[in-house]
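One example copied in:
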Amino acid sequence: MGPDDIGSLVAAIGALGTASFALVDATKIGRDGGVSNSGFSFIEAAVRVFLPGAGRKKNADAMNVLDVLHGNWINGAALADQKAIAKSLIKLQLNEKNAETFAKAADVDAAVLTAVAKAMRAGTALNDAQGNALGRFDVALTAILDDGYQHADQKYRNSAKVLASVVAIVLAVAGGWAVVGGALGAYLASAMLWKAALCGLLAIPLAPITKDLTSALQAGVKVAQAIRK
């Protein structure tokens, strides 16, 4: 392989990475959103701190908080918007019956938060103590949801990359066999297998920067050629 072929190789590896991500993205058509569902368990755990009995079973008589949040999650809505919606929906569930659970989760006075729930339902103004309790509850709710969504986002991104890497390696190995030809056993025992697998392994980290890296390599080759002349 000559210097002029390096740019083509990098471009081909980047294209393989892009194709692998596209195939992984296609799994979203599956049950619960495929790879998009990855990480949602962290969000469920954060919501259940305040709503222990929350589930994703649809209920025509009441809004299902987790089902709404799951729809936003697998659809890829902006993370900030998702957290804002989750926060609003949980606060909307606050009432006299669950105020003690909410207070325990946010480390605020249960009696005061119960009074806050009653005042909010009645539409009356809050006194200073109630306003302070609601403010502390709001901060705690924001922190717990942010923790859940950050862990969920990390899990989703890592899961997508790992799955895409596996797909890229399989495609690269299959492509290598298609190029080399011959018996499968001989191919699996050859050095070409490992070269193809290495290309598949490099495909995912190279995919986002392929264009810039290819341009840089081509420029470097031209400089080297000019120096040799």
About this structure: The CA atoms of residues 42 and 94 lie 21 Å apart.
